[in-house]
Sequence to fold (304 residues):
Amino acid sequence: MNSGTVALVGRPNAGKSTLINRILGRKIAIVSDKPQTTRISILGIKTTDRGQIVFIDNPGIHKPLHGLNRRMMNFVFTSLETADLVCLLVDAPQPFGHGDAFVLETLKNVSKPLFLLLNKVDLIRKDKLLPLIDRYKDLLAFEEIIPVSALKGINLDRFEDCLYRALPEADRLYAADEITDQSQRFFLAEIIREKLLARVEQELPFVTAVLLEQIEERRAETPEGQAPRPPVIYLQASILVEKDSQRKIVIGRQAQLLKAIGSEARREIEDILKTRIYLDLQVKVRPRWRDSADVLDLIEGQKR
Ligand SMILES: Nc1nc2c(ncn2[C@@H]2O[C@H](COP(=O)(O)OP(=O)(O)OP(=O)(O)O)[C@@H](O)[C@H]2O)c(=O)[nH]1
Ligand SMILES: [Mg+2]
Fold:
Protein backbone atom coordinates (compact mmCIF):
# COMPACT_ATOMS: atom_id res chain seq x y z
CA MET A 1 0.00 0.00 0.00
CA ASN A 2 1.29 3.48 -0.91
CA SER A 3 0.18 6.59 0.93
CA GLY A 4 1.27 10.17 1.39
CA THR A 5 0.64 13.84 0.75
CA VAL A 6 0.70 15.75 -2.53
CA ALA A 7 0.89 19.55 -2.54
CA LEU A 8 -1.00 21.12 -5.44
CA VAL A 9 0.60 24.43 -6.34
CA GLY A 10 0.53 26.90 -9.19
CA ARG A 11 -0.62 30.36 -10.16
CA PRO A 12 -4.06 31.51 -9.09
CA ASN A 13 -6.73 30.22 -11.48
CA ALA A 14 -4.63 27.30 -12.79
CA GLY A 15 -7.35 24.82 -11.79
CA LYS A 16 -6.07 23.30 -8.53
CA SER A 17 -9.45 23.28 -6.81
CA THR A 18 -11.20 21.99 -9.92
CA LEU A 19 -8.66 19.15 -10.00
CA ILE A 20 -9.16 18.14 -6.39
CA ASN A 21 -12.94 18.10 -6.82
CA ARG A 22 -12.68 16.04 -9.98
CA ILE A 23 -10.29 13.49 -8.52
CA LEU A 24 -12.38 13.07 -5.37
CA GLY A 25 -15.58 12.94 -7.40
CA ARG A 26 -17.26 15.47 -5.16
CA LYS A 27 -17.06 19.15 -4.38
CA ILE A 28 -14.91 20.01 -1.40
CA ALA A 29 -13.31 23.22 -2.72
CA ILE A 30 -14.95 26.25 -4.25
CA VAL A 31 -14.01 27.31 -7.76
CA SER A 32 -14.31 30.58 -9.63
CA ASP A 33 -13.01 32.29 -12.73
CA LYS A 34 -11.41 35.00 -10.54
CA PRO A 35 -7.83 34.60 -9.28
CA GLN A 36 -7.10 33.98 -5.57
CA THR A 37 -10.27 32.03 -4.90
CA THR A 38 -8.64 29.60 -2.46
CA ARG A 39 -7.29 31.40 0.61
CA ILE A 40 -6.75 28.58 3.09
CA SER A 41 -5.26 25.18 2.28
CA ILE A 42 -7.59 22.22 2.58
CA LEU A 43 -7.03 18.50 2.30
CA GLY A 44 -8.76 16.23 -0.18
CA ILE A 45 -8.28 12.62 0.83
CA LYS A 46 -8.66 9.81 -1.71
CA THR A 47 -8.54 6.23 -0.48
CA THR A 48 -8.42 3.27 -2.89
CA ASP A 49 -7.17 -0.36 -2.83
CA ARG A 50 -3.75 0.94 -3.74
CA GLY A 51 -3.46 3.25 -0.75
CA GLN A 52 -4.31 6.83 0.15
CA ILE A 53 -3.42 10.08 -1.56
CA VAL A 54 -3.83 13.20 0.56
CA PHE A 55 -4.02 16.17 -1.78
CA ILE A 56 -3.36 19.63 -0.38
CA ASP A 57 -5.30 22.29 -2.30
CA ASN A 58 -3.39 25.53 -1.85
CA PRO A 59 -3.93 29.20 -2.59
CA GLY A 60 -2.31 30.32 -5.84
CA ILE A 61 1.32 31.49 -5.76
CA HIS A 62 1.46 35.28 -6.03
CA LYS A 63 3.33 38.29 -4.64
CA PRO A 64 1.63 39.12 -1.35
CA LEU A 65 0.65 42.74 -0.73
CA HIS A 66 -1.60 42.30 2.33
CA GLY A 67 -1.61 40.30 5.52
CA LEU A 68 -4.25 38.04 3.98
CA ASN A 69 -1.98 37.30 1.03
CA ARG A 70 1.06 36.68 3.23
CA ARG A 71 -0.98 34.08 5.10
CA MET A 72 -2.08 32.56 1.79
CA MET A 73 1.54 32.24 0.71
CA ASN A 74 2.50 30.76 4.08
CA PHE A 75 0.05 27.94 3.43
CA VAL A 76 1.89 27.28 0.17
CA PHE A 77 5.32 27.29 1.85
CA THR A 78 4.14 24.99 4.63
CA SER A 79 2.74 22.48 2.17
CA LEU A 80 5.95 22.56 0.12
CA GLU A 81 7.81 21.65 3.32
CA THR A 82 5.46 18.97 4.57
CA ALA A 83 4.23 17.17 1.44
CA ASP A 84 5.84 14.00 0.08
CA LEU A 85 5.30 15.09 -3.51
CA VAL A 86 4.70 18.43 -5.20
CA CYS A 87 2.51 18.92 -8.23
CA LEU A 88 2.64 22.12 -10.25
CA LEU A 89 -0.44 23.00 -12.28
CA VAL A 90 -0.07 25.33 -15.21
CA ASP A 91 -2.87 27.00 -17.16
CA ALA A 92 -1.54 25.70 -20.48
CA PRO A 93 -3.50 27.94 -22.88
CA GLN A 94 -2.18 31.09 -21.16
CA PRO A 95 1.07 32.57 -22.49
CA PHE A 96 4.08 32.16 -20.15
CA GLY A 97 4.51 35.35 -18.12
CA HIS A 98 6.05 36.97 -15.02
CA GLY A 99 3.66 35.08 -12.78
CA ASP A 100 4.96 31.77 -14.14
CA ALA A 101 8.57 32.83 -13.64
CA PHE A 102 7.70 33.74 -10.04
CA VAL A 103 6.20 30.28 -9.50
CA LEU A 104 9.33 28.57 -10.85
CA GLU A 105 11.46 30.78 -8.60
CA THR A 106 9.36 29.68 -5.62
CA LEU A 107 9.84 26.01 -6.53
CA LYS A 108 13.50 26.01 -7.49
CA ASN A 109 14.77 24.91 -4.05
CA VAL A 110 12.16 22.22 -3.54
CA SER A 111 14.03 18.95 -3.30
CA LYS A 112 11.16 16.49 -3.52
CA PRO A 113 9.67 14.76 -6.53
CA LEU A 114 7.99 17.35 -8.71
CA PHE A 115 5.21 16.66 -11.21
CA LEU A 116 3.92 19.04 -13.85
CA LEU A 117 0.32 19.09 -15.00
CA LEU A 118 -0.36 21.14 -18.10
CA ASN A 119 -4.00 21.83 -17.38
CA LYS A 120 -6.94 22.95 -19.53
CA VAL A 121 -5.80 20.93 -22.57
CA ASP A 122 -9.43 20.93 -23.65
CA LEU A 123 -8.79 24.57 -24.63
CA ILE A 124 -5.44 24.25 -26.40
CA ARG A 125 -4.43 23.19 -29.91
CA LYS A 126 -2.26 20.05 -29.96
CA ASP A 127 0.56 21.80 -31.81
CA LYS A 128 0.89 24.32 -28.97
CA LEU A 129 1.37 21.60 -26.39
CA LEU A 130 4.70 20.13 -27.53
CA PRO A 131 6.65 23.41 -27.42
CA LEU A 132 5.24 24.01 -23.94
CA ILE A 133 6.39 20.59 -22.74
CA ASP A 134 9.84 21.27 -24.20
CA ARG A 135 10.04 24.61 -22.50
CA TYR A 136 9.15 23.28 -19.06
CA LYS A 137 11.50 20.28 -19.41
CA ASP A 138 14.46 22.63 -19.28
CA LEU A 139 13.18 24.76 -16.43
CA LEU A 140 12.87 22.28 -13.56
CA ALA A 141 13.56 18.57 -13.08
CA PHE A 142 10.05 17.15 -13.36
CA GLU A 143 9.46 13.43 -12.80
CA GLU A 144 6.63 13.55 -15.32
CA ILE A 145 4.89 16.14 -17.45
CA ILE A 146 1.26 15.25 -18.00
CA PRO A 147 -1.24 17.19 -20.13
CA VAL A 148 -4.61 17.06 -18.37
CA SER A 149 -8.01 18.64 -18.17
CA ALA A 150 -9.17 18.94 -14.58
CA LEU A 151 -12.57 20.09 -15.80
CA LYS A 152 -13.17 17.31 -18.34
CA GLY A 153 -11.27 14.63 -16.45
CA ILE A 154 -8.69 14.00 -19.18
CA ASN A 155 -5.58 11.97 -18.23
CA LEU A 156 -6.27 12.02 -14.50
CA ASP A 157 -5.99 8.22 -14.22
CA ARG A 158 -2.47 8.46 -15.54
CA PHE A 159 -1.70 11.22 -13.02
CA GLU A 160 -3.04 9.15 -10.12
CA ASP A 161 -1.02 6.16 -11.29
CA CYS A 162 2.17 8.26 -11.34
CA LEU A 163 1.47 9.46 -7.82
CA TYR A 164 0.95 5.97 -6.41
CA ARG A 165 4.23 4.88 -7.97
CA ALA A 166 6.08 7.82 -6.40
CA LEU A 167 4.49 7.74 -2.93
CA PRO A 168 6.23 5.90 -0.11
CA GLU A 169 5.04 2.50 0.98
CA ALA A 170 2.96 3.37 3.99
CA ASP A 171 -0.31 2.85 5.76
CA ARG A 172 -3.19 5.28 5.40
CA LEU A 173 -2.77 8.59 7.19
CA TYR A 174 -6.53 9.11 7.66
CA ALA A 175 -9.50 6.83 8.10
CA ALA A 176 -10.75 5.41 4.80
CA ASP A 177 -14.02 7.38 4.98
CA GLU A 178 -12.43 10.77 5.63
CA ILE A 179 -12.61 13.15 2.68
CA THR A 180 -11.38 16.51 3.95
CA ASP A 181 -10.10 18.34 7.03
CA GLN A 182 -12.36 21.41 6.89
CA SER A 183 -15.37 21.92 9.14
CA GLN A 184 -18.81 22.06 7.63
CA ARG A 185 -19.11 25.62 8.93
CA PHE A 186 -16.11 26.68 6.87
CA PHE A 187 -17.38 24.92 3.74
CA LEU A 188 -20.78 26.62 4.01
CA ALA A 189 -19.11 30.03 4.33
CA GLU A 190 -17.06 29.13 1.26
CA ILE A 191 -20.19 28.23 -0.71
CA ILE A 192 -21.55 31.70 0.00
CA ARG A 193 -18.23 33.22 -1.10
CA GLU A 194 -18.33 31.16 -4.30
CA LYS A 195 -21.74 32.61 -5.23
CA LEU A 196 -20.44 36.07 -4.42
CA LEU A 197 -17.29 35.63 -6.54
CA ALA A 198 -19.37 34.50 -9.50
CA ARG A 199 -21.21 37.83 -9.45
CA VAL A 200 -18.64 40.50 -8.68
CA GLU A 201 -15.85 42.03 -10.75
CA GLN A 202 -12.72 44.17 -10.51
CA GLU A 203 -11.37 44.63 -6.97
CA LEU A 204 -14.41 43.11 -5.25
CA PRO A 205 -13.30 39.45 -5.37
CA PHE A 206 -10.17 40.47 -3.45
CA VAL A 207 -11.80 42.65 -0.79
CA THR A 208 -14.68 40.38 0.20
CA ALA A 209 -14.77 37.65 2.83
CA VAL A 210 -17.55 35.62 4.40
CA LEU A 211 -18.02 34.91 8.10
CA LEU A 212 -20.66 32.43 9.17
CA GLU A 213 -21.85 33.97 12.42
CA GLN A 214 -24.61 31.60 13.45
CA ILE A 215 -26.12 28.21 12.60
CA GLU A 216 -29.18 27.23 14.56
CA GLU A 217 -31.91 24.64 14.15
CA ARG A 218 -35.36 26.16 14.53
CA ARG A 219 -38.41 23.97 14.91
CA ALA A 220 -41.59 25.53 13.64
CA GLU A 221 -44.67 25.31 15.90
CA THR A 222 -46.89 22.43 14.81
CA PRO A 223 -50.49 23.61 14.36
CA GLU A 224 -53.10 21.46 16.16
CA GLY A 225 -53.88 18.23 14.38
CA GLN A 226 -51.16 18.57 11.72
CA ALA A 227 -48.00 16.55 11.10
CA PRO A 228 -44.88 18.15 12.61
CA ARG A 229 -43.05 20.41 10.18
CA PRO A 230 -39.42 19.60 9.35
CA PRO A 231 -36.93 21.85 11.15
CA VAL A 232 -35.44 24.85 9.40
CA ILE A 233 -31.76 25.65 9.79
CA TYR A 234 -31.19 29.33 10.32
CA LEU A 235 -27.85 30.63 9.05
CA GLN A 236 -26.56 34.12 9.58
CA ALA A 237 -23.50 35.19 7.60
CA SER A 238 -21.63 38.44 7.09
CA ILE A 239 -19.99 39.48 3.88
CA LEU A 240 -17.05 41.72 4.73
CA VAL A 241 -15.91 44.55 2.48
CA GLU A 242 -13.42 47.35 3.12
CA LYS A 243 -15.37 50.45 2.02
CA ASP A 244 -18.94 51.67 1.95
CA SER A 245 -18.83 52.03 -1.85
CA GLN A 246 -18.05 48.29 -2.02
CA ARG A 247 -20.89 47.51 0.35
CA LYS A 248 -23.30 49.33 -1.99
CA ILE A 249 -22.06 47.34 -4.99
CA VAL A 250 -22.44 43.98 -3.23
CA ILE A 251 -25.97 44.85 -2.15
CA GLY A 252 -26.87 46.20 -5.58
CA ARG A 253 -29.80 48.25 -6.76
CA GLN A 254 -32.89 47.32 -4.73
CA ALA A 255 -30.70 44.68 -3.07
CA GLN A 256 -30.89 42.64 -6.29
CA LEU A 257 -27.34 41.37 -6.20
CA LEU A 258 -27.36 40.34 -2.56
CA LYS A 259 -30.69 38.56 -3.06
CA ALA A 260 -29.32 36.64 -6.03
CA ILE A 261 -26.19 35.61 -4.12
CA GLY A 262 -28.35 34.61 -1.16
CA SER A 263 -30.76 32.48 -3.14
CA GLU A 264 -28.01 30.69 -5.07
CA ALA A 265 -26.12 29.97 -1.85
CA ARG A 266 -29.32 28.85 -0.11
CA ARG A 267 -30.13 26.35 -2.85
CA GLU A 268 -26.70 24.74 -2.71
CA ILE A 269 -26.59 24.70 1.09
CA GLU A 270 -30.02 23.05 1.18
CA ASP A 271 -28.61 20.34 -1.10
CA ILE A 272 -25.65 19.84 1.22
CA LEU A 273 -27.62 19.85 4.48
CA LYS A 274 -30.61 18.07 2.96
CA THR A 275 -33.03 20.33 4.77
CA ARG A 276 -34.67 23.69 4.36
CA ILE A 277 -32.57 26.64 5.43
CA TYR A 278 -33.11 30.30 6.07
CA LEU A 279 -30.11 32.38 5.05
CA ASP A 280 -29.64 35.85 6.47
CA LEU A 281 -26.83 37.72 4.67
CA GLN A 282 -25.50 41.05 5.85
CA VAL A 283 -22.78 43.16 4.23
CA LYS A 284 -20.43 44.81 6.73
CA VAL A 285 -17.69 47.37 6.24
CA ARG A 286 -14.43 46.42 7.97
CA PRO A 287 -11.79 48.91 6.81
CA ARG A 288 -8.51 47.19 5.87
CA TRP A 289 -9.66 43.78 7.12
CA ARG A 290 -7.07 42.16 4.85
CA ASP A 291 -4.42 43.55 7.20
CA SER A 292 -6.27 42.89 10.45
CA ALA A 293 -4.87 39.90 12.32
CA ASP A 294 -8.10 39.65 14.34
CA VAL A 295 -10.37 39.37 11.30
CA LEU A 296 -7.95 37.00 9.54
CA ASP A 297 -7.87 34.80 12.66
CA LEU A 298 -11.67 34.71 12.68
CA ILE A 299 -11.84 33.69 9.03
CA GLU A 300 -9.17 31.03 9.49
CA GLY A 301 -10.71 29.84 12.74
CA GLN A 302 -13.86 28.82 10.85
CA LYS A 303 -11.99 25.91 9.30
CA ARG A 304 -11.61 24.04 12.60
N1 LIG B 1 -11.65 24.71 -19.77
C1 LIG B 1 -11.14 24.38 -18.59
N2 LIG B 1 -11.31 25.19 -17.54
C2 LIG B 1 -10.78 24.81 -16.36
C3 LIG B 1 -10.05 23.62 -16.20
N3 LIG B 1 -9.65 23.54 -14.91
C4 LIG B 1 -10.11 24.65 -14.31
N4 LIG B 1 -10.78 25.43 -15.16
C5 LIG B 1 -11.43 26.72 -14.90
O1 LIG B 1 -10.43 27.61 -14.42
C6 LIG B 1 -10.96 28.51 -13.46
C7 LIG B 1 -10.15 28.46 -12.17
O2 LIG B 1 -10.33 27.20 -11.57
P1 LIG B 1 -9.97 26.95 -10.04
O3 LIG B 1 -10.08 25.49 -9.80
O4 LIG B 1 -10.76 27.87 -9.16
O5 LIG B 1 -8.43 27.40 -10.01
P2 LIG B 1 -7.44 27.44 -8.75
O6 LIG B 1 -6.11 27.04 -9.25
O7 LIG B 1 -7.99 26.65 -7.62
O8 LIG B 1 -7.44 28.99 -8.43
P3 LIG B 1 -7.08 29.75 -7.03
O9 LIG B 1 -7.89 29.12 -5.95
O10 LIG B 1 -7.46 31.14 -7.32
O11 LIG B 1 -5.60 29.59 -6.83
C8 LIG B 1 -12.42 28.10 -13.27
O12 LIG B 1 -13.23 28.93 -14.09
C9 LIG B 1 -12.43 26.66 -13.77
O13 LIG B 1 -13.70 26.24 -14.27
C10 LIG B 1 -9.89 22.77 -17.36
O14 LIG B 1 -9.28 21.71 -17.34
N5 LIG B 1 -10.45 23.21 -18.52
MG1 LIG C 1 -8.49 27.18 -5.70
Summary: The pocket of guanosine-5'-triphosphate (ligand 1) is lined by residues 10, 12-18, 31-33, 35-38, 59-60, 119-120, 122-123, 149-151 (CB under 6 Å).
